[in-house]
Amino acid sequence: MAIIVCALVVASIYFRRGAEPAVAAPEVSSLSVEVVQARRQIWPQLLFANGALAPWQEAVINAETSNLRIASIEADVGSRVKKGQLLATLASETVVAEESKQKALVAQAEANLKQARSNDRRAQVVGEGGALSEQQREDYRIKVALAEADLASARAELQSTRIRLRQTRIVAVDDGIISARTALLGKVLSAGDELFRLVRDGRIEWQAELDARQLAQVQPGQIARMTLPGGQSVEGRVRLVSPTLSTKTSRALVYISLPNDSAAQAGMYASGQIELAPREAVTVPDTAVILRDGRSYVFTLNEDMRVVQRPVVVGRRLHQAVEILSGLDEPARIVRAGGAFLNDGASVTLVQAQVAQP
Prior knowledge:
This is Efflux RND transporter periplasmic adaptor subunit. The chain is α+β, with helices and mostly antiparallel strands.
């Protein structure tokens, strides 16, 4: 009987212990994180654009006379020249001979005029004595007038020849850089043949393409920054905003002047941004924003040390920070970095809690 009682006592103790609930094991966090809060800052608004680089103004230097060959070429592509600097010369022998001929014709016309005036004076003296009729005296005056006209014509021809002689010297029409040369040594020219192209003052500008909505926000004088194909950054200013849009692309050009000493060259294609009037922005560090499935997210930390994945709409980026347009409460604690290794609801360990600078 005693043996049965002991067995019952042991069994009751065993079943009581089995009924006690098991103590839950502490949950292990997946990642240690640092948190920050969103910050309000005054940021410039940026318009992003692409466009080609082209000369500010390009001058075309043509031949002004014809039937003369190019005797020498004094400049080539890339040459930096001053206004009036010699670029090429044309063979001038025939023009010099023509000038000598015209000088002789002027001298002859001057002599003829001198003789006509002398005859007119004598006729006037004789006519006062009644030896000449009024008609004869009129003939002498007409001869003087004809001689004067012949002299004026001869002088005009001489002046024309001298102009043509000056045109045998092809000179730069302005300061700048030679961008193209079609002049060939020995080529016989026709009037109007192109010889050189010149980038005036060596100035290059960025012709940024904008749509109608963006165009309305741009004004001359605004700062623009662009990145060249080689990675160099260049700063310029808006010089001119096109008054019309292209009927084919529905886009307009904004002309942005660049420094003369920049690495920009005509023919390049560059991207950049135009700074508009600044406005307030809610910003977080760019490391806090992750991209998943084509959308932007941040992780916020709750009081139970679990993170919540929140979709956000991002805007401008500046100095390793990004603007949050919507989807975020400013007092929220935001995971600064490492969001790519987190999932919604994950438990984390807080390393440092601070209001950090984005």
